[in-house]
Amino acid sequence: MQPATQSLATIRRLVPVVQVMEGEGFLVNRPFPTRELSYIDPFLLVDEFGPVHFKAGEAKGTGAHPHKGFEILSYILKGGFNHKDSLGNTASLNAGDVQWMTTGRGIVHKEQPIDAVKQHGGEMHGFQVWINLAASQKNMEPSYQEIRATEIPTVSGENFSAKVLIGSAFGTASPIKTNTPVEYHHYTLQPDAELELLMHRDHNTFLYPISGTLLINDRESISRGKMPWFNHDGDLVRVKNASLSQTAEFIFFSGKPLGEPVARYGPFVMNTEKELEHAFMEYQLGMMGTLG
Which domains does the chain have, with CATH numbers? Predict the structure, then answer.
């Protein structure tokens, strides 16, 4: 039941974003997992690759590798990736496209920059996010969803626009189906624009600044490199573009905590160490499939 008077949620923590080398040798910006913060339930990982401009022959991706026990969202802002997995899915993801994989009991996949970027160079920018699955769903059948840029719902207001990748915002819902309740929206604010975003008090909510400077709740000035994670003490967060001449962009994340133990190592996320050992055995026996 919504309280009669809505209040602003305070910032619980400003999470620093660090750079980490991944895959065949490409840098990602990562607020978690790090030594200081393992995860924000139900989110297990947030990686921003780029923005970076590759010269011809420089772009790198990932070789074949397994995953089990969670869901993966990949969102391309610039450039593109070729995808292939053990379910038989192949795809080229380009700017604006979204990919959602439910790894469930196990899947093997690989990602490589599109041929044009590999051969001739170009810009690459995007996000990959891991969302945990409940213990009862960690051995479900894996599945794959692919949503093209033209299919992503967009909400436009007088001074903002929002791509509703997951969940709903301003009466508009995403077509992507998830197992864990989460929200994932990409906002663009016009110069000096202000926006109030509704929150669920029982969710963990945080913002990832992409560009520009944001003024949070009329108090905290935040830009790239710092990620505000909010307390459960309010129903909304007020975000203002502090610039009078340039747009600002950020991603709004919100998810209902599972409240379950997390045992993770590399590409597997389970609830106990014994389950992790079993996952490695399954992979070694080829039970998660192979890439042809």
Answer: 11-284 (2.60.120.10)
